[in-house]
Amino acid sequence: MKTMRPTLLLLLFMPLTQPAPSTQQDSHVIYEYGADDFEETTFSQDYEDNYQDGKNIKEKVPMIIPDENSFQLQRDETVTPLPPKKENDEMPTCLLCVCLSGSVYCEEVDIDAVPPLPKESAYLYARFNKIKKLTAKDFADMPNLRRLDFTGNLIEEIEDGTFSKLSLLEELSLAENQLLKLPVLPPKLILLNAKHNKIKSRGIKANAFKKLNKLSFLYLDHNALESVPPNLPESLRIIHLQFNNITSVTDDTFCKSNDTRYIRDRVEEIRLEGNPIILGKHPNSFICLKRLPIGSYF
């Protein structure tokens, strides 16, 4: 009898308990608010179950790994090809040479052409190289040049317009080259050194020196001249013509035959030794000079 009391009590309370309502909801819930319908999309049951279980499942996105060929194609499309190098641009001038305060020193560096110069350059020393030709383009837009030295190269040709526009050029050295003629010279030239070349008289124009009113030093020794260049300017102080093929001089070579009072007082030195000429046979050719030329008189 005692064992049946708990059983009877349990049977009396069981009808009072009801099952819990289902928690499942429709995927769409429609609310009525005034006259308008409002529709709200709820989470799907799968996502809600996963979230309630404490599992945060993210959608897996496939990773695309490009192969080597696609990388190569991308590099080929994005890389811009460099322009081809010019011969003179292989090394900047001021790395190949020495640039210092408007002076460029390109001595014994085996260049075969004039390198691009800084625009402010006033002095260029390009001695003992392998330059064979000088052109007007070499010194285009170089208004400040005052001195050019190409001693000891292999220069055979110089275009006539190479120096004519260099209005400030005062000193030009073309010594120890292979020149057969002189180019047109700049108007303010003070010194011209073209010794040890192969220049003949026909390679110097008749008026090559006539308008050079500032020319003071002229070195044309060790060439192949047959005569003294005509129309030498009054400004000359030093004239070196030794070791050529000069065979004669006239009364007008250094003086003026029609003016016995004329004196060339600026000349300090004329050298004519080493030429096949006897200076003593031409006494009237030197009467305007303060000093007799150096050479053979007998």
Describe the structure.
With 298 residues, this protein is of the alpha/beta class. The chain has helices at 5-13, 45-52, 68-78, 93-96; strands at 28-33, 36-41, 98-100, 103-105, 123-125, 133-134, 147-149, 157-158, 171-173, 191-193, 217-219, 238-240, 269-271. The strands form 3 sheets. Strands 3-4-5-7-9-10-11-12-13 form a 9-stranded mixed beta sheet. A two-stranded antiparallel sheet has the order 1-2. It has a two-stranded parallel sheet with strand order 6-8. A hairpin with a 2-residue loop joins strand 3 (98-100) and strand 4. The longest helix is centred in the N-terminal third of the chain and has 11 residues, at 68-78. The protein is elongated and about 60 Å long.
Describe this structure in a few short sentences.
By secondary structure, the protein is of the alpha/beta class. The chain is built from 4 helices and 13 strands. Helix content is 11%, strand content 14%.
Order of helices and strands: HEEHHHEEEEEEEEEEE
Main structural class: alpha/beta
* Count of strand segments: 13
Low-confidence stretches: 1-13, 15-61, 70-90
- In the sheet with the most strands, the strands line up as 3-4-5-7-9-10-11-12-13
What is the radius of gyration computed over CA atoms, rounded to a whole number of angstroms?
50 Å
